[in-house]
Design a protein that fits this description.
Length: 339
Protein backbone atom coordinates (compact mmCIF):
# COMPACT_ATOMS: atom_id res chain seq x y z
CA UNK A 1 0.00 0.00 0.00
CA UNK A 2 2.82 2.40 0.92
CA UNK A 3 4.44 1.72 -2.49
CA UNK A 4 1.17 2.61 -4.25
CA UNK A 5 0.92 5.84 -2.25
CA UNK A 6 4.49 6.76 -3.16
CA UNK A 7 3.94 6.11 -6.87
CA UNK A 8 0.69 8.09 -6.88
CA UNK A 9 2.36 11.02 -5.06
CA UNK A 10 5.03 11.10 -7.73
CA UNK A 11 2.41 11.22 -10.51
CA UNK A 12 0.55 14.04 -8.74
CA UNK A 13 3.70 16.07 -8.28
CA UNK A 14 4.76 15.63 -11.92
CA UNK A 15 1.30 16.41 -13.40
CA UNK A 16 1.45 19.68 -15.34
CA UNK A 17 -1.71 21.82 -15.21
CA UNK A 18 -1.61 24.53 -17.87
CA UNK A 19 -5.23 24.97 -18.89
CA UNK A 20 -8.77 24.06 -17.91
CA UNK A 21 -8.66 20.81 -19.86
CA UNK A 22 -5.57 19.50 -17.98
CA UNK A 23 -7.10 20.71 -14.68
CA UNK A 24 -10.23 18.68 -15.32
CA UNK A 25 -8.14 15.63 -16.25
CA UNK A 26 -6.25 15.98 -12.94
CA UNK A 27 -9.50 16.06 -11.00
CA UNK A 28 -10.96 13.03 -12.77
CA UNK A 29 -7.76 10.93 -12.41
CA UNK A 30 -6.92 11.67 -8.77
CA UNK A 31 -9.54 13.38 -6.53
CA UNK A 32 -12.90 12.50 -8.04
CA UNK A 33 -15.14 9.86 -6.51
CA UNK A 34 -13.85 7.34 -9.02
CA UNK A 35 -10.24 8.61 -9.02
CA UNK A 36 -7.06 6.84 -7.90
CA UNK A 37 -7.13 8.24 -4.32
CA UNK A 38 -10.74 7.11 -3.84
CA UNK A 39 -9.74 3.62 -4.96
CA UNK A 40 -6.92 3.58 -2.37
CA UNK A 41 -9.38 4.50 0.38
CA UNK A 42 -11.61 1.58 -0.71
CA UNK A 43 -8.62 -0.77 -0.39
CA UNK A 44 -7.67 0.86 2.96
CA UNK A 45 -10.94 -0.41 4.46
CA UNK A 46 -9.78 -4.00 4.04
CA UNK A 47 -6.58 -3.52 6.10
CA UNK A 48 -6.06 -4.55 9.70
CA UNK A 49 -6.17 -2.02 12.56
CA UNK A 50 -2.39 -2.04 12.90
CA UNK A 51 -1.91 -1.45 9.15
CA UNK A 52 -4.49 1.36 9.14
CA UNK A 53 -2.59 3.15 11.94
CA UNK A 54 0.61 2.95 9.91
CA UNK A 55 -0.80 3.81 6.47
CA UNK A 56 -3.68 6.19 7.37
CA UNK A 57 -1.60 9.36 7.91
CA UNK A 58 0.29 8.88 4.63
CA UNK A 59 -2.95 8.35 2.70
CA UNK A 60 -4.59 11.44 4.24
CA UNK A 61 -1.51 13.54 3.43
CA UNK A 62 -1.68 12.33 -0.19
CA UNK A 63 -5.33 13.36 -0.45
CA UNK A 64 -4.65 16.79 1.07
CA UNK A 65 -1.70 17.40 -1.24
CA UNK A 66 -3.75 16.50 -4.33
CA UNK A 67 -6.66 18.74 -3.31
CA UNK A 68 -4.28 21.60 -2.48
CA UNK A 69 -2.62 21.34 -5.93
CA UNK A 70 -6.03 21.28 -7.62
CA UNK A 71 -7.32 24.37 -5.79
CA UNK A 72 -4.11 26.27 -6.33
CA UNK A 73 -4.07 25.53 -10.07
CA UNK A 74 -7.77 26.41 -10.42
CA UNK A 75 -7.24 29.75 -8.69
CA UNK A 76 -4.25 30.53 -10.89
CA UNK A 77 -6.18 29.78 -14.09
CA UNK A 78 -9.08 31.99 -12.99
CA UNK A 79 -6.77 34.93 -12.41
CA UNK A 80 -4.84 34.42 -15.66
CA UNK A 81 -5.93 36.92 -18.40
CA UNK A 82 -7.71 35.37 -21.39
CA UNK A 83 -5.72 35.05 -24.61
CA UNK A 84 -8.83 34.58 -26.76
CA UNK A 85 -9.20 36.93 -29.70
CA UNK A 86 -11.82 39.68 -29.23
CA UNK A 87 -15.07 39.00 -31.08
CA UNK A 88 -15.35 42.61 -32.16
CA UNK A 89 -16.78 45.83 -30.84
CA UNK A 90 -20.00 44.77 -29.11
CA UNK A 91 -21.10 48.42 -28.89
CA UNK A 92 -21.51 48.71 -32.67
CA UNK A 93 -25.04 48.44 -34.14
CA UNK A 94 -26.01 44.93 -35.15
CA UNK A 95 -26.41 43.88 -38.77
CA UNK A 96 -30.01 44.08 -39.91
CA UNK A 97 -31.82 41.54 -42.08
CA UNK A 98 -30.63 41.22 -45.65
CA UNK A 99 -32.28 43.47 -48.21
CA UNK A 100 -34.43 41.53 -50.66
CA UNK A 101 -34.40 41.98 -54.43
CA UNK A 102 -37.09 42.21 -57.05
CA UNK A 103 -38.35 39.03 -58.68
CA UNK A 104 -36.98 38.64 -62.23
CA UNK A 105 -40.52 38.77 -63.64
CA UNK A 106 -41.13 42.05 -61.82
CA UNK A 107 -37.87 43.46 -63.22
CA UNK A 108 -38.83 42.52 -66.79
CA UNK A 109 -42.43 43.69 -66.31
CA UNK A 110 -41.25 47.12 -65.15
CA UNK A 111 -38.90 47.38 -68.14
CA UNK A 112 -41.74 46.63 -70.56
CA UNK A 113 -44.10 49.09 -68.87
CA UNK A 114 -41.46 51.82 -68.98
CA UNK A 115 -40.83 51.31 -72.71
CA UNK A 116 -44.50 51.69 -73.63
CA UNK A 117 -45.23 54.51 -71.18
CA UNK A 118 -42.45 56.54 -72.80
CA UNK A 119 -44.32 56.42 -76.13
CA UNK A 120 -47.67 57.38 -74.62
CA UNK A 121 -49.31 54.15 -73.46
CA UNK A 122 -51.31 54.26 -70.24
CA UNK A 123 -51.32 51.40 -67.73
CA UNK A 124 -54.68 49.68 -67.09
CA UNK A 125 -55.61 47.04 -64.52
CA UNK A 126 -58.53 44.68 -64.14
CA UNK A 127 -59.87 41.74 -62.10
CA UNK A 128 -58.52 38.20 -62.47
CA UNK A 129 -62.06 36.73 -62.32
CA UNK A 130 -64.13 37.93 -65.27
CA UNK A 131 -67.27 37.01 -67.14
CA UNK A 132 -67.56 35.23 -70.47
CA UNK A 133 -68.35 38.46 -72.30
CA UNK A 134 -65.11 40.24 -71.34
CA UNK A 135 -62.91 37.19 -71.88
CA UNK A 136 -64.50 35.64 -74.98
CA UNK A 137 -67.67 37.05 -76.53
CA UNK A 138 -66.61 40.67 -76.87
CA UNK A 139 -63.33 39.48 -78.42
CA UNK A 140 -65.12 37.71 -81.28
CA UNK A 141 -64.65 34.15 -79.97
CA UNK A 142 -67.30 31.91 -81.56
CA UNK A 143 -69.40 29.76 -79.22
CA UNK A 144 -67.60 26.63 -80.41
CA UNK A 145 -64.06 28.05 -80.16
CA UNK A 146 -61.63 25.56 -78.47
CA UNK A 147 -60.51 28.19 -75.94
CA UNK A 148 -63.96 28.04 -74.36
CA UNK A 149 -63.48 24.35 -73.59
CA UNK A 150 -62.75 23.21 -70.02
CA UNK A 151 -59.38 21.86 -71.21
CA UNK A 152 -58.08 25.44 -71.60
CA UNK A 153 -60.03 27.55 -69.12
CA UNK A 154 -60.56 27.46 -65.36
CA UNK A 155 -64.27 28.15 -64.83
CA UNK A 156 -65.39 29.40 -61.43
CA UNK A 157 -69.05 28.82 -62.22
CA UNK A 158 -71.23 28.09 -65.25
CA UNK A 159 -74.43 29.77 -66.44
CA UNK A 160 -73.55 32.58 -66.32
CA UNK A 161 -69.91 31.78 -66.94
CA UNK A 162 -67.40 33.23 -64.47
CA UNK A 163 -63.78 32.25 -65.05
CA UNK A 164 -60.14 32.99 -64.32
CA UNK A 165 -59.09 35.25 -67.20
CA UNK A 166 -57.08 33.49 -69.88
CA UNK A 167 -55.50 36.72 -71.17
CA UNK A 168 -55.18 40.34 -70.11
CA UNK A 169 -57.07 41.34 -73.26
CA UNK A 170 -60.17 41.18 -71.05
CA UNK A 171 -58.88 44.34 -69.36
CA UNK A 172 -58.77 46.09 -72.72
CA UNK A 173 -62.45 45.37 -73.26
CA UNK A 174 -63.22 47.15 -69.98
CA UNK A 175 -61.03 50.06 -71.11
CA UNK A 176 -62.77 50.34 -74.48
CA UNK A 177 -66.24 50.33 -72.91
CA UNK A 178 -65.37 53.07 -70.38
CA UNK A 179 -63.19 55.36 -72.51
CA UNK A 180 -63.56 57.06 -75.85
CA UNK A 181 -60.91 57.04 -78.59
CA UNK A 182 -58.11 57.88 -78.92
CA UNK A 183 -57.06 55.02 -76.61
CA UNK A 184 -53.46 53.99 -76.09
CA UNK A 185 -53.30 51.43 -73.29
CA UNK A 186 -51.37 48.45 -71.92
CA UNK A 187 -52.68 45.92 -69.39
CA UNK A 188 -50.37 43.84 -67.21
CA UNK A 189 -51.21 40.94 -64.92
CA UNK A 190 -51.50 37.25 -64.17
CA UNK A 191 -53.54 34.93 -66.39
CA UNK A 192 -54.55 31.29 -66.09
CA UNK A 193 -54.71 28.34 -68.49
CA UNK A 194 -55.59 24.73 -67.75
CA UNK A 195 -52.33 23.37 -69.15
CA UNK A 196 -49.78 20.78 -68.06
CA UNK A 197 -46.81 22.23 -66.17
CA UNK A 198 -43.51 21.76 -67.99
CA UNK A 199 -40.32 23.63 -68.86
CA UNK A 200 -42.28 25.55 -71.54
CA UNK A 201 -45.78 25.96 -70.07
CA UNK A 202 -47.55 26.56 -66.77
CA UNK A 203 -51.10 26.78 -65.42
CA UNK A 204 -50.54 30.48 -64.65
CA UNK A 205 -48.25 33.08 -66.15
CA UNK A 206 -48.06 36.84 -66.72
CA UNK A 207 -49.00 38.88 -69.77
CA UNK A 208 -48.64 42.35 -71.18
CA UNK A 209 -51.44 43.33 -73.54
CA UNK A 210 -51.48 46.56 -75.52
CA UNK A 211 -53.74 48.41 -77.95
CA UNK A 212 -53.95 51.67 -79.83
CA UNK A 213 -57.26 52.95 -81.25
CA UNK A 214 -57.51 56.16 -83.25
CA UNK A 215 -58.45 57.39 -86.70
CA UNK A 216 -56.36 56.07 -89.59
CA UNK A 217 -54.31 53.55 -87.56
CA UNK A 218 -52.56 51.13 -89.92
CA UNK A 219 -50.46 47.98 -89.80
CA UNK A 220 -47.40 50.16 -90.36
CA UNK A 221 -48.11 51.83 -86.99
CA UNK A 222 -48.19 48.39 -85.40
CA UNK A 223 -44.89 47.36 -87.01
CA UNK A 224 -43.19 50.58 -85.97
CA UNK A 225 -44.33 50.12 -82.37
CA UNK A 226 -43.15 46.50 -82.24
CA UNK A 227 -39.79 47.34 -83.83
CA UNK A 228 -39.25 50.11 -81.29
CA UNK A 229 -40.13 47.77 -78.40
CA UNK A 230 -37.83 44.94 -79.56
CA UNK A 231 -34.87 47.20 -80.29
CA UNK A 232 -35.21 48.99 -76.92
CA UNK A 233 -35.54 45.81 -74.87
CA UNK A 234 -33.25 43.38 -76.70
CA UNK A 235 -30.90 45.73 -78.51
CA UNK A 236 -30.71 47.19 -82.05
CA UNK A 237 -28.87 44.14 -83.42
CA UNK A 238 -31.84 41.83 -82.70
CA UNK A 239 -33.32 40.18 -85.78
CA UNK A 240 -37.11 40.26 -86.05
CA UNK A 241 -39.72 38.74 -88.34
CA UNK A 242 -43.52 38.81 -88.72
CA UNK A 243 -45.43 35.63 -89.60
CA UNK A 244 -49.06 35.51 -90.68
CA UNK A 245 -51.30 33.98 -88.01
CA UNK A 246 -54.87 33.91 -86.71
CA UNK A 247 -56.52 35.41 -83.64
CA UNK A 248 -60.30 35.84 -83.31
CA UNK A 249 -60.00 39.48 -82.23
CA UNK A 250 -57.52 40.75 -84.87
CA UNK A 251 -57.54 40.76 -88.66
CA UNK A 252 -55.00 40.59 -90.19
CA UNK A 253 -52.99 38.84 -87.46
CA UNK A 254 -49.31 38.09 -87.07
CA UNK A 255 -46.87 36.42 -84.72
CA UNK A 256 -43.57 38.14 -84.05
CA UNK A 257 -40.33 36.16 -83.70
CA UNK A 258 -36.80 37.20 -82.76
CA UNK A 259 -33.59 35.24 -83.20
CA UNK A 260 -33.03 32.90 -80.23
CA UNK A 261 -30.68 34.53 -77.72
CA UNK A 262 -29.91 31.24 -75.98
CA UNK A 263 -28.36 29.50 -78.98
CA UNK A 264 -27.63 32.60 -81.11
CA UNK A 265 -29.82 31.19 -83.88
CA UNK A 266 -28.04 27.83 -84.07
CA UNK A 267 -30.99 25.83 -82.71
CA UNK A 268 -31.86 24.57 -79.21
CA UNK A 269 -34.76 23.06 -77.27
CA UNK A 270 -36.16 26.50 -76.40
CA UNK A 271 -36.47 27.56 -80.05
CA UNK A 272 -37.31 23.99 -81.15
CA UNK A 273 -34.10 23.99 -83.19
CA UNK A 274 -35.43 26.66 -85.54
CA UNK A 275 -33.23 29.54 -84.39
CA UNK A 276 -36.35 31.72 -83.86
CA UNK A 277 -38.51 32.29 -80.77
CA UNK A 278 -42.00 33.76 -80.78
CA UNK A 279 -42.30 36.70 -78.37
CA UNK A 280 -45.77 38.10 -79.06
CA UNK A 281 -48.92 37.99 -81.14
CA UNK A 282 -50.37 41.09 -82.78
CA UNK A 283 -52.74 42.38 -85.41
CA UNK A 284 -55.30 44.97 -86.43
CA UNK A 285 -58.34 44.98 -84.14
CA UNK A 286 -61.29 43.24 -85.81
CA UNK A 287 -64.17 45.67 -86.60
CA UNK A 288 -66.59 43.34 -84.76
CA UNK A 289 -64.60 43.86 -81.54
CA UNK A 290 -64.83 47.64 -81.96
CA UNK A 291 -68.57 47.34 -82.53
CA UNK A 292 -68.98 45.21 -79.40
CA UNK A 293 -67.28 48.00 -77.43
CA UNK A 294 -69.52 50.68 -79.00
CA UNK A 295 -66.71 52.15 -81.08
CA UNK A 296 -67.58 52.99 -84.68
CA UNK A 297 -65.34 50.85 -86.97
CA UNK A 298 -66.04 53.24 -89.89
CA UNK A 299 -64.37 56.06 -87.98
CA UNK A 300 -61.76 54.32 -85.85
CA UNK A 301 -59.25 51.56 -86.34
CA UNK A 302 -56.58 50.13 -84.08
CA UNK A 303 -53.98 47.51 -83.43
CA UNK A 304 -53.41 45.16 -80.48
CA UNK A 305 -50.59 42.96 -79.25
CA UNK A 306 -49.95 40.59 -76.38
CA UNK A 307 -46.88 38.85 -74.92
CA UNK A 308 -45.95 36.55 -72.03
CA UNK A 309 -43.55 38.13 -69.54
CA UNK A 310 -42.03 34.73 -68.70
CA UNK A 311 -41.05 34.19 -72.34
CA UNK A 312 -39.39 37.61 -72.48
CA UNK A 313 -37.56 36.99 -69.18
CA UNK A 314 -36.31 33.60 -70.40
CA UNK A 315 -34.77 35.26 -73.45
CA UNK A 316 -33.29 38.22 -71.58
CA UNK A 317 -31.70 36.10 -68.84
CA UNK A 318 -31.12 32.96 -70.95
CA UNK A 319 -33.24 30.69 -68.73
CA UNK A 320 -34.41 27.40 -70.23
CA UNK A 321 -37.03 26.30 -67.67
CA UNK A 322 -40.25 28.26 -67.08
CA UNK A 323 -40.86 26.55 -63.72
CA UNK A 324 -37.91 28.30 -62.07
CA UNK A 325 -39.91 31.55 -61.90
CA UNK A 326 -42.51 30.08 -59.51
CA UNK A 327 -40.49 27.60 -57.40
CA UNK A 328 -39.11 30.30 -55.05
CA UNK A 329 -35.55 29.01 -54.83
CA UNK A 330 -33.52 31.78 -53.18
CA UNK A 331 -30.31 30.67 -54.89
CA UNK A 332 -32.05 31.33 -58.24
CA UNK A 333 -33.81 34.56 -57.29
CA UNK A 334 -30.74 36.22 -55.74
CA UNK A 335 -28.98 36.26 -59.12
CA UNK A 336 -31.12 39.07 -60.48
CA UNK A 337 -30.57 42.79 -59.99
CA UNK A 338 -32.22 45.81 -61.48
CA UNK A 339 -30.16 47.22 -64.33
Amino acid sequence: MMDCIAQLREKIENWIIQDKASLESFRCDFISRKGAIARLFEAFKQLSIAEKKAIGPALNNLKNEAEKKFKSAASLLESKPSTAQPIGDVTLPSFGPGIGSLHPLTIVQNKIITIFQRIGFNLAEGPEIVGDWHNFSALNFPDNHPARDMQDTFFVQRNPDQLLRTHTTSVQISTCTTQKPPIRSIAVGRVFRNEAISARSHCFFHQVDGMYIHTDVTFSDLKGTIYHFVETLFGPATKLRFRASYFPFTEPSAEVDINCRLCKGKGCTVCKHSGWVEILGAGMIDPHVLTNCHIAPDTYSGFAFGMGIERIAMLLYQIDDLRLFSENHLAFLRQFTVC
